[in-house]
Amino acid sequence: MQIQRALHIQLICTAIGLMSAVMISCGGDVPQIQPPTATAALTGAPTATPVSAIVPPKLTVIPTPANTPTEVPTKVPANTPGTPSSTPAGTMPTVTISGVAFTVDVADTPEKRFQGLSGRPVLEEGTGMLFIFQEERKHTFWMKDMRFPLDMVWINASCAVADITTDVPSPPPDSDDSVLPTYSPSAPATYNLEINAGVAAASGLKTGDTVTFGGSLSGRFGC
Predict the structure, then answer these.
(1) Under DSSP, is residue 150 helix (H, G, I), strand (E, B) or coil?
(2) Which one of 73, 87, 148, 206 is least enclosed by Cβ atoms within 10 Å?
(3) Does residue 13 share a domain with residue 106?
(4) pLDDT in tens, 109-118
(5) Is 96 exposed, middle or buried (0-12, 13-18, 19+ CB in 10 A)?
(6) Is-contact 21 50, C-beta < 8 A?
């Protein structure tokens, strides 16, 4: 653009020179023509508007907390199914007749009395099952689903042996209920102690013997 303006001025000067020559040849005065003042050159390329420097935001560093070990609660082992929990010997229910003691299972609800010893394969030596009733009378028993013979020691509310039914046989397997015999004491009783057949005679048990309950049964039934 600067070059074009210089050429333009040169052309003007040349034209003025020619005009002066013509006027001189014609006898005229040459006017004093001031050459045009050169206009300041246009400012170069416009200055770019400065763009504010983009300052990236400061990255806030959140300190990672140190791993704190979580306390694992101590697992308390539960009783393994099928493994009986140990019971102190002093709390086991016992029945003692004239100095002969038996460790017993207690059947003191209708459901437990109905089940009794039915289905058990054996009865351990020195053990039995004590049936407890709410009233004293001639209760009736049978041997449904029994697998071994029994002695039944009937005990009255005065804590004495009321009667003993010995050598009660187990019925043949799958016997119909209608053909099963029933057994009752000759005198009213509140309790029935079932033990293995032959134990009553071997232990010398007899009617009128004093009965004492011990262990967890102590003081509960007056015996």
Answers:
(1) strand
(2) 73
(3) no
(4) 999 999 999 9
(5) middle
(6) no
